[in-house]
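Researcher: Good morning. I'm working through a list of sequences from a screen, and I'd like to move beyond sequence-only analysis. For each chain I'm collecting a predicted structure so we can compare shapes side by side. This is the next one on the list. No need for commentary yet; just the structure.
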Amino acid sequence: MTKNSSAAPLDGTGAYEHDQRDVRSRRTTALIGLGLLLVAFVITAGIVLTDAVAGDGAAGPAVDAAAWSLGLAGLTGLGAAALPRGALKRGVRGKAVLAQYLLMILGPILAALD
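Model: Good morning. C-alpha cells for this chain:
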C-alpha cells in the first residue's frame, strides 16, 4: 500500500472499502451516542434535582463524578466522530465509542448513588 491513505490496496482484497465502511459506521455510532448523551444528561439532572428536593439538599462527590463522566463521554464521542481516519489506529475508534457509551451509562448511575 502506498503512503497515500486514499489509495486502494494493491492486493485487490477490498480492504480499503471495508475499512472505510467500518470507520463510517463507528462515526455514526459515535454521533448517535452524542445524541443519547443529551438524554443521559437530562436523566442525570432529574436524579440530582430529585435528590436535592427529597434528600438532604446537598450534592455529594458522586454527583461530581457523574458530571465528569458525562463530560468525558462527550469528549470521547466527539473525538471518535471527528478525528480523521489517519489520526487513529485501527480499532482505536471502536474502543473510543465503547468508552463513550460506558461513561454515558455511568453518569446517571453515579448520580443515583449519591
